[in-house]
Structure formats: C-alpha cells, structure tokens
Design a protein that fits this description.
Elements: E1 4-12, E2 16-25, E3 28-38, E4 42-43, E5 46-47, H1 50-68, E6 71-72, E7 74-79, E8 85-94, H2 104-114, E9 123-135, E10 138-141, E11 151-162, H3 163-175, E12 179-185, H4 186-194, H5 197-202, E13 204-209, E14 214-220, E15 223-230, H6 234-245, H7 249-259, E16 272-276, E17 283-287, H8 288-312, E18 322-325, H9 334-342, E19 346-348, H10 362-378, E20 386-389, E21 394-395, H11 409-426
Parallel strand pairs: 1-7, 7-12, 13-18, 18-19
Antiparallel strand pairs: 1-2, 2-3, 4-5, 6-20, 8-11, 9-10, 9-11, 13-14, 14-15, 16-17, 20-21
Helix pairs in contact: 1-3, 4-10, 6-7, 6-8, 8-9
C-alpha cells in the first residue's frame, strides 16, 4: 500500500455531477467509490447559478463518501467548453547537474520556460501537455529523466481558458468544502480512457454527447489536435419529447431513459407506455416507434453538427473513425444511427472498471488516469484526496462503526493498510 495513492475526480456536467474516487497502485487504477447527483445550476455546460451548483457538488461528494467511508478533502476538476484554446509551445534549458544527468528539476524548468508566452489578460494557462522532449537533438523522448545530455528541449501544447469561467468553477468547488489539487482538460482525460494509442496515431474523432452540450475532439499523431463544443445534447431530446408528448420534462426524461430508441428502423411498435398530459390528470398511450422518430431527428442533428465541427478543424477523412461516449450514448440505437450517418467505423467507449461501466463516467475515470500520468511526467505532486480524524489516524467514517469484531480478518487487514497509507501522507 505504500506505493498507492487515492485520487478523486470531479466532472461538472449540465445534467449530472459525478465524483469518482480511485486508488492508484503501481500504475494500476481501481475505482473504489462513485457519487452522482443531479446538476441544478448548469445550462449548456456553463454555470448559471453558483449556489445550486455548490449544493449539487456537495450531494455528489457525500454520496461518494458514504460508499467508501472516507471524507473527501481535494479533487481533480475537469474543465471543458468552447472557451478552451490550444496553442503550441517550445521550451529550452541547459542541464544543470555536474554529471549532466537530467532530473526532475530540469524537466520542471523546461516546462516552466515553455509557458513564458504572451497571452491576453482575460485568459489563463491551466496546463502544459508535453508532446515530446528533445535531448541534444534526439527527439521523440517521452520521459528524459535519467538520460545524459547538455541541452533539454520540450515541444508541447499550452491549454488556456477564460479566466472568468475558470474562477467561477473553482469558487463553486471551494464553497462546497473541497480543495482543487489539479485542473484537467476533459477531452484529454476522456481520450486517455476511450481511445487506443493506434486510434490516436491514425487520426480519430472523439464525440462526447452530454446533457447540455457535446464535445468534439480530434486526435492525430498520438496527441490532441483540436477540440470544440456543440451546444446540443441529451436535454434537447428530452425537450422535444416533452413538447411532442405534451408532458412534463421529468416524465419526458423518464420516458427517454426507459423507452427511448435512437434508430427508427430498429424501434419496437409493440413497446407501449403511457404519458400524463401536462395540465391535467389524463394519460395517453404511445409506442416506442412514435417517440423514436423524434429522438432520431434530434440525435441526427447532434451528429451533423459534430461532423461540421470536424470539417471546420480541417479534417475530411479520419482513418481511426469515430468514437462516441457520454451519457446520451447509453440509449439503444445511438450507435446504429451514427454508423448509418458517418458511413465509417464507429464504436461506443465505456470505461472497463467495475461500478462505472457506463459511457457517462468516461470523462470522470479519464480525469483520474490522465491527472496521475500527467503529474508523473511533469514531476508534480497531487494533494492527498481524503481526510482523516487526527485522534485516530483513520479515514473518517460515515454512518459506519469504527470496528466490528465479527468482520473477517482479511477485511481488517485491508483497513489497516489504508490507515497506514493516510498516516504516510499526512504525518
């Protein structure tokens, strides 16, 4: 357990806020807790009500805490939106050590040097992603530590965002009683889970269809090339159903989740359900085929806008095809509709971890994996993500007794190991 680390990701979405607790042990990620709450203060991917967003973050965090019996102290926050900009950067430093061996300090200096660029006052740098390191002219190095050299260079991508939007997000997280240990770009995070290295090298489009907006990202030559946001998502399908069936938004959402089908040709006419007409107690009977027509039309529009964004980025053909993820992709028929429209190789990406095997958790799990990997490359330490009570040197328990004599010995051993982990971090 000495080599393990507990990280927590926070994915602030338009329809749901997800908190995922992961344990990293010897570069292997284990998901140990998940919390999900309805997002009340967001619209089209942006915060419109700080108080409601704060409460939603608290609800999701408390749910995750109850699952693992720990108190969350800090989180890695995922950030997304049309305000994100990518620009290339380049840094050069001389290796300082007497034996010319490249160490953590040299890597930190070359990354810091790459950030010395002019950016507008309303924008802020949130991360620098190294593409390659160059040691004395030798390129395509992923980690130069331990190598001998005189001149160290780094080519990478600087990620900037709107200072106002970033500060509003951080304010919500801090008011929810959490510290921000790191900030992570969600398309990069989702790509680390959803895409294979071969797909990234060939050229692939990652389309993350969320509740209020959809993120379109293109990866090429192993790295994120461009990203954009379309302000259409699953909530637009819900609104269409609400208008078409003349029912409440809540009932339309329930119908979409339980009876919806995104591909008209495969929808079942014999799947029948009832919907309450808004403003009265009267109910009307519908079948899956009737609502499939509405769902298909709206989702087809989402795909068409995503394709248009890919064309704007300058891509006509992507050998790696299209990878779909996000909560809306859980709907039956979403994959078949995409295959019919794109006329290319298309698949849906789902995290392969117990408890989060749904496309809505791709970004949240990706944040954990990417933040851990990126911290190692850049030589920075993430804050420990959970707190304990000082008197007991033990993770704080929620609605659970501190010990139970009837517990199996193996279980007690595991808890003792976790206690040692927190003692190691905080002493």
């Amino acid at each position: 357990m000495e080599n393990s680390e507990v990280l927590v990701s926070l994915d602030i979405g338009t329809s749901k806020i997800k908190v995922i607790i992961g344990e990293v042990l010897n570069d292997s990620l284990n998901i140990i807790g998940v919390g999900s709450a309805k997002s009340n203060g967001m619209k089209k991917g942006a915060i419109v009500d700080i108080d409601k967003t704060v409460q939603s973050i608290r609800n999701a965090a408390e749910q995750a805490e109850r699952m693992v019996g720990m108190e969350i102290d800090s989180v890695v926050v995922g950030i997304n939106g049309s305000h994100i900009q990518l620009q290339p950067c380049h840094g050069v430093v001389a290796v300082q050590s007497d034996d010319r061996e490249i160490g953590d300090e040299d890597v930190t200096r070359v990354i810091d040097g790459a950030q010395v660029i002019s950016i507008p006052p309303e924008r802020e740098i949130i991360d620098v992603i190294p593409k390659q390191f160059i040691v004395d002219g030798l390129d395509e190095i992923t980690d130069p530590r331990g190598m001998i050299g005189v001149r160290l260079e780094m080519e990478g991508t600087i990620i900037t965002c709107s200072k106002t939007i970033l500060h509003n997000i951080l304010k919500c997280v801090e008011r929810a009683g959490l510290q921000v240990s790191d900030i992570c770009l969600q398309p990069l995070a989702a790509g680390s889970i959803a895409l294979s290295q071969d797909e990234k090298n060939l050229g692939v489009a990652l389309i993350d269809v969320g509740g209020g907006c959809s993120t379109v990202s293109v990866f090429e030559n192993g790295h994120l090339s461009s990203t954009s946001v379309v302000t259409l998502g699953g909530e637009n399908i819900t609104k269409d159903l609400s208008i078409g069936l003349r029912t409440s938004t809540e009932e339309a959402e329930d119908i979409k989740l339980n009876h919806g089908h995104a591909f008209y040709d495969l929808a079942q006419e014999d799947e029948i359900f009832e919907a309450t007409t808004i403003g009265s107690n009267a109910t009307q009977t519908y079948n899956q085929l009737e609502i499939s027509d509405m769902i298909e039309a709206r989702l087809e529009e989402v795909y068409a806008f995503a394709e248009r964004e890919i064309r704007k980025m300058g891509y006509r053909e992507l050998p790696g095809g299209y990878v779909l993820t996000g909560g809306t992709m859980k709907m039956p028929g979403a994959l078949e509709l995409a295959q019919d429209l794109f006329q290319s190789n298309v698949r849906i990406a789902i995290p392969d971890y117990i408890g989060v095997r749904e496309p809505q958790f791709t970004a949240g799990v990706g944040i954990l994996q990417f933040a851990n990997h990126n911290a190692k490359i850049q030589g920075k330490e993430l804050q420990p993500a959970v707190a304990f009570t000082e008197s007991e040197q033990q993770p704080k328990r929620i609605k659970k007794s501190q010990s139970n004599d009837s517990e199996p010995k193996e279980k007690k051993k595991k808890q003792s190991g976790i206690a040692n982990l927190f003692k190691y971090f905080f002493d």
